[in-house]
Each structure stands twice: as structure tokens, then as C-alpha cells.
Amino acid sequence: MKKEKNTCPSNFRTFGLALQAVTVLSKYPNLCPSGEIAQHLKSEATLLRRILARLVQENILETREGRDGGYRLKQAPENITCAQVLQALLQEESLHGEMLASTGDHAFGQRMNGVFAGLMAEIDQSVLAVLERHTIADLAEKTLLPEGD
């Protein structure tokens, strides 16, 4: 039985770093090395590479390895929504799984599990609806200085 993906990644820090990295990349028409992205975010390049690898797998970014390698957006920043970035990062295990696991296998627990699943589905729809309204271009416009700070 395949687990249903939920919109709450197990680590919101990962989602935040992904949004920041993609926002920085929106100002780079050519490849940008992970080290340079890490400098902008004041984060570790190794951690960012793991996050960016997932975004490459989900066709949000493209990459080229090697000394002259780096990352760049596969689409224009105004065509990438925050919801797409979140969905690219979703893991099989999520905060929803922990909530659903809190219920028992007795009759009351099974009923609560159904109620919790309904609540989580409603939350998922709300989260995605909000994130669909915001693009990477929107984030860049609000946060980046013209020279790409």
C-alpha cells in the first residue's frame, strides 16, 4: 500500500532553505555553484547540495557537475510556485504520519484516525492554495537587491 504524500515536510527548515536557494538562483541566468548559494544563505554547501539534488530530480533545477558546474532554474522564476518547491521536497514520512500514528488500533483510535486524516487533507489543500499564489519571482522581488545580494 502506497503512503499518501502530505504537504507538511518533516523539516520546515529544508523547505525554507530550498525557497531561499531557488530565490537566489532566480538572479543567475547561468550556472551558480552551490558554494556561492551557501554564501548567500550563510548555510552549509553540503546541506544545500542535498536539498538542491531533490529539486533537480523534480525538474525545478538543472545541474552540471565539475569544476565549472553549478545549478540554475529550469523555468523562469515567475513560472515556479512555492507550492511546486514544497511538493518537490515531500517525504514519505511527514508530520501527518506522526499525528496519525498517535491514534490506537482500537475503535476510538480508528475513528480519531479518520477524523485526523480529514483535518490533514483540509490543511494540505489550504497550504497548497496559499503557496500556489506565490512565485519565486515574487520572493526575489521582495528580498533581493538589484545586484543579487
Automatic annotation (TrEMBL):
<dbReference type="Pfam" id="PF02082">
    <property type="entry name" value="Rrf2"/>
</dbReference>
<dbReference type="InterPro" id="IPR000944">
    <property type="entry name" value="Tscrpt_reg_Rrf2"/>
</dbReference>
<dbReference type="GO" id="GO:0003700">
    <property type="term" value="F:DNA-binding transcription factor activity"/>
</dbReference>
<dbReference type="InterPro" id="IPR036388">
    <property type="entry name" value="WH-like_DNA-bd_sf"/>
</dbReference>
<dbReference type="GO" id="GO:0005829">
    <property type="term" value="C:cytosol"/>
</dbReference>
<protein>
    <submittedName>
        <fullName>BadM/Rrf2 family transcriptional regulator</fullName>
    </submittedName>
</protein>
<dbReference type="InterPro" id="IPR036390">
    <property type="entry name" value="WH_DNA-bd_sf"/>
</dbReference>
